[in-house]
Predict the structure.
Amino acid sequence: MFSYLDHLECTQCGKTYPHTELQKTSPCCDKVLFARYDLPRLRRDLDRSVFASRPDNMWRFSELLPVLQPEYVLTLGEGGTPLLKAGNLAKKLGLRSLFIKEEGLNPTGTFKARGIAAAVSKAQELGVTGFTMPSAGNAAGAAATYCARAGLPVKVFMPKDAPLSNQKESVMAGSELNLVDGLIGDAGRIAVAVAEEQHLFDLSTLKEPYRAEGKKTMGLEIALQLGWKMPDAIIYPTGGGTGIIGMYKAFQELLQLGWIEGRQPKFIAVQPEGCQPIVRAFQEGKETSQAWANATTLADGLRVPHPFADYLILDAIRKTGGTALAVDDPSMVDAMYEIAASEGIIACPEGAATLVGLKRLLVDGFLSPDETIVLLNTGSGYKYLDLIQVSARNTA
Ligand SMILES: Cc1ncc(COP(=O)(O)O)c(C=O)c1O
Ligand SMILES: [Zn+2]
């Protein structure tokens, strides 16, 4: 059991690079580099049945993860989250088969733990000794904890109005917290400049190859949990889009390995009305997005005005026959109540947005009641309890 990583590949032009060197974006096109594995060899060597018997965390898929030597794996127990049947919501909505992938059970309470565990482990293996990390909030908290575990310093950069829970977890875990007067893009520019100046490695999502690999494990787990089947649709709250990109890649790899068959699920991106660059680009038939002006939403993780990997998100949505739609902030908060009251899941506003999207797509007829649908709850609502106290719902 260990990695079948083979090389890195530019997602724009296909040029390849060795994985033995530290890489950021592709030197040829300044686009996302993807990790590529020796899938034919893995297919010969391994039967998919081995995965079910391994410990239930994301490293059970180590052959399809980038870390070469087990001693570099940093873990806080990320992954292995339940795919919960949402029977009460399904009944209410007249659906046959609805699931919620409950990512709130990850270390630091969000799916960000997966990507950060993969990226920090791999960077450490390649000799990195310090990091910068721009983030809407949750990824910074995750980076702070994994870097603490690695015994390596990290300087995190987040918008000054990022959730206090994220600021506090970063400080607790000993990272250097920098609050930026701006949005994630501004935090990113500062983080890159500081990284260059101080010889640190910048962990911006999709600007290094391995955070997407960690997020890919959500797709691998969903397939395993459904008995090596893909659902018909996955509804995903989309900011930078790493989750969609990672899961689409996961299913591609599983199809190439012959471990699953059939069609990829329709990927459905939900964004807030106040920041919907992917929805706009999708509706206009564009291959890339334009920056969303004056981005504002209470779902901080979705306040990404100009996703770096927009072309990959849009490609995954279109190739799978998916769609993109925007929902308003109050409806997300209402959906937090509804998911908790119907299923006992305390979801984050981003995750709750997927229920709002689902309802709309059922009314529109885009999704049908006999499909197997997965909602991605990307994080725990326990990080957002202040939102519940100030919501309109309490005064209604
Ligand atoms: C809770 C939560 N959900 C969703 C997202 C968006 O994730 P992605 O970059 O994969 O689109 C974020 C990103 O910060 C987040 O914190
Ligand atoms: Zn290229």
In short: The chain has a mean pLDDT of 96. DSSP finds 14 helices and 13 strands in the chain.
